[in-house]
């Protein structure tokens, strides 16, 4: 079996290529720039002309797909690739299996209903498309050559021009690579209160993420920092939810954590049913005390 891996970021490229290597005879990896070498049998680099949006590289990726003729495509579920690869899959009338958790030569395991259930799925088309979140193949090792080829850009019939670029503040951390993750939720009453969470993270060597309302309603974190079904899917060793209610859309992003803790002032908060250890208390009361003990 031949698998094409499409990824933008190094960690995802490594992990998806490793996952593909575990069952595929041949792994080809396609990306936009700065390829990771040694993880696939061949690496294809798509150079998008200046001023063009990367999403406009659809025809180039369609050509790669036709030339390589893989039976499986693994893609990193970034916003851009969901749009671009989703279009590729639709164009090919192909089976799409999102958020897979395991794969063998016959079938894949995927999560559904927002991650509360798993099912076994089988492709019914010659090529199938699968996305996988961080941590899905974290125990697998990639291997490959340093062969890198630049793919000629195929200009789309209708160009998609990039009319404006805004540089967002860089994400403070790569949560996908963190062993310990703390998530701040709406239990934090103000942005200033997050300082206690940062102190806590520093003391235990964790990185700080959040629930969706803290990025979309409050704008206290960049969009890349929220955890859950529409954000980051993580597999940390340790997860600590502070002021997090435990809604399924958030918890599915960390339910592969090895050990999970929660701090919440409401003893009946749903998160307490989903973690290994819970502490009932108000953030302003308990977090400074924990930090004082840890310092
Ligand atoms: C389609 C869809 C997709 C979604 N995707 C995501 C996603 O990917 N990620 C995500 O996070 N959410 C997602 N959501 C939103 C999700 O459903 C929840 O609304 C969200 O996770 C709740 O965030 P929260 O726990 O921070 O806030 P809340 O639900 O408001 O909970 C706040 C918690 O803090 C506690 N609290 C309050 N004050 C204190 C205090 N002083 N001390 C201690 N505890 C306190 C409260 O008891 C409560 O349990 C999605 C929703 C939809 C509809």
TrEMBL record:
<keyword id="KW-0285">Flavoprotein</keyword>
<feature type="domain" description="Electron transfer flavoprotein alpha/beta-subunit N-terminal">
    <location>
        <begin position="40"/>
        <end position="152"/>
    </location>
</feature>
<comment type="similarity">
    <text>Belongs to the ETF alpha-subunit/FixB family.</text>
</comment>
<dbReference type="InterPro" id="IPR014731">
    <property type="entry name" value="ETF_asu_C"/>
</dbReference>
<dbReference type="GO" id="GO:0009055">
    <property type="term" value="F:electron transfer activity"/>
</dbReference>
<dbReference type="InterPro" id="IPR001308">
    <property type="entry name" value="ETF_a/FixB"/>
</dbReference>
<comment type="function">
    <text>The electron transfer flavoprotein serves as a specific electron acceptor for other dehydrogenases. It transfers the electrons to the main respiratory chain via ETF-ubiquinone oxidoreductase (ETF dehydrogenase).</text>
</comment>
<dbReference type="Pfam" id="PF00766">
    <property type="entry name" value="ETF_alpha"/>
</dbReference>
<comment type="subunit">
    <text>Heterodimer of an alpha and a beta subunit.</text>
</comment>
<keyword id="KW-0813">Transport</keyword>
<feature type="domain" description="Electron transfer flavoprotein alpha subunit C-terminal">
    <location>
        <begin position="174"/>
        <end position="254"/>
    </location>
</feature>
<dbReference type="GO" id="GO:0033539">
    <property type="term" value="P:fatty acid beta-oxidation using acyl-CoA dehydrogenase"/>
</dbReference>
<dbReference type="InterPro" id="IPR029035">
    <property type="entry name" value="DHS-like_NAD/FAD-binding_dom"/>
</dbReference>
<dbReference type="InterPro" id="IPR014729">
    <property type="entry name" value="Rossmann-like_a/b/a_fold"/>
</dbReference>
<dbReference type="Pfam" id="PF01012">
    <property type="entry name" value="ETF"/>
</dbReference>
<dbReference type="InterPro" id="IPR014730">
    <property type="entry name" value="ETF_a/b_N"/>
</dbReference>
<protein>
    <submittedName>
        <fullName>Electron transfer flavoprotein subunit alpha/FixB family protein</fullName>
    </submittedName>
</protein>
<dbReference type="GO" id="GO:0050660">
    <property type="term" value="F:flavin adenine dinucleotide binding"/>
</dbReference>
């Amino acid at each position: 079996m031949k698998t094409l891996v499409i990824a933008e970021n190094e960690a995802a490229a490594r992990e998806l290529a490793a996952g593909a290597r575990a069952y595929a005879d041949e792994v080809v990896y396609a990306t936009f720039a700065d390829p990771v070498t040694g993880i696939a049998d061949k690496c294809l680099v798509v150079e998008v002309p200046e001023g063009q949006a990367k999403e406009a590289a659809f025809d180039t990726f369609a050509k790669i797909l036709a030339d390589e003729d893989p039976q499986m495509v693994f893609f990193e579920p970034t916003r851009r690739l969901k749009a671009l690869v989703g279009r590729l899959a639709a164009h090919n009338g192909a089976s799409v299996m999102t958020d897979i958790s395991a794969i063998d030569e016959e079938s894949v395991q995927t999560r559904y209903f927002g991650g509360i259930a798993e099912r076994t799925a089988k492709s019914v088309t010659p090529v199938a498309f699968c996305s996988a979140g961080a941590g899905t193949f974290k125990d697998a090792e990639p291997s490959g050559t340093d062969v890198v080829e630049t793919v000629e850009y195929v200009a789309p019939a209708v160009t998609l021009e990039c009319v404006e670029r805004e540089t967002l503040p860089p994400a403070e951390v790569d949560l996908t690579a963190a062993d310990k993750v703390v998530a701040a939720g709406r239990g934090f009453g103000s942005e200033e209160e997050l300082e206690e969470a940062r102190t806590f993270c520093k003391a235990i060597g964790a990185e700080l993420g959040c629930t969706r309302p803290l990025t979309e309603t409050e704008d206290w974190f960049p969009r890349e920092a929220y955890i859950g079904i529409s954000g980051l899917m993580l597999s940390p060793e340790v997860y600590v939810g502070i002021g997090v209610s435990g809604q399924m859309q958030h918890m599915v992003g960390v339910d592969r954590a090895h050990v999970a803790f929660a701090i919440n002032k409401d003893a009946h908060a749903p998160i307490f049913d989903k973690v290994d250890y819970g502490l009932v208390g108000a953030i302003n009361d308990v977090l400074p005390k924990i930090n004082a003990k840890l310092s």
